[in-house]
From TrEMBL:
UniProt-listed PROSITE patterns: CYTC
PTM notes: Binds 2 heme c groups covalently per subunit.
Subcellular location: Periplasm
Protein name per the record: Cytochrome c553
SUPFAM superfamilies for this protein: Cytochrome c
Keywords: Electron transport, Heme, Iron, Metal-binding, Periplasm, Transport
Amino acid sequence: MNKISCLLVVIAGFSGALRAEIDVDKAKEIYGPCAACHGQFGAGGKKGEYPRIAGQHARYTYEQLKNFQSQHRLNLPMFPYTKERELPEEDMKLVAAWLETVELPTRMPTFNGDEDALTRLNMVEKVMIVPRAEGDVAAGGKVYQEHCGGCHGRQGKGRGMFPMLVGQYTNYLKKQIDAYRRGERPHEDETASEGILYQVSEDEIRNVLAYLTTLQNAD
Ligand code: HEC
Ligand code: HEC
């Protein structure tokens, strides 16, 4: 099977799983061990050493889990959790589909007075705001809309196989861009960003990352 038809089979199988109703309890159970690093709500942590995975597109998440499993994307902390025995195919699809539905607000909640202390704490803990990154926002916006927005979305929210970039830790994004540019994280088909990412300068990347942090409250 060539790469394209292989990909199509994966997509076909996957959208089937997506259409099925999500068993939230089962998904949370599968997610249990992931929380140790990615946090209770999938917000990641340690300033992006652990990326945010809540709200990310299911298809992208699923593909990355497959990439970790096959070690196409090398990561020592992630690898053991993606082994077939730990995370069978069905569980991988389910946890990816569920994570897409987990919303992390970018504004502090307003309480209506009925919430108990734990509910309030959880509401506050779910808020995820990436700190403003340094750089020329206007210049970054121009580069982003010209070179990145076509795939990652005008508001940085991505779709399908194109990951959401907005609301992700700046450090993590920078680390991934560096990995792509060094050829460590491979792009395997012609729609990937490798070409573009090689053409922009370090300054332009910095500005794009600064711009992305300004999009978090855009609707
Ligand atoms: C021991 C810590 C650890 C555990 C447990 C863990 N991860 Fe991760 N995960 C990481 C690290 C570190 C990265 C970032 C890898 C990198 O920098 O390339 C990551 C990256 C990811 C990514 C890629 C995000 C992106 O934007 O590309 C996904 C998806 C993911 N993890 C899902 C999971 C799921 C689902 C589980 C549970 C089955 C899990 N992880 C368990 C540490 C962990
Ligand atoms: C032609 C479509 C396309 C364009 C244009 C594009 N990207 Fe991407 N990008 C992708 C795809 C597809 C992936 C996921 C690839 C993979 O599996 O690793 C990706 C992944 C990424 C990631 C990793 C996200 C994560 O969660 O790990 C970053 C960061 C990124 N792109 C930044 C950019 C920037 C910045 C630009 C503009 C300079 C850009 N991309 C332009 C398609 C594109």
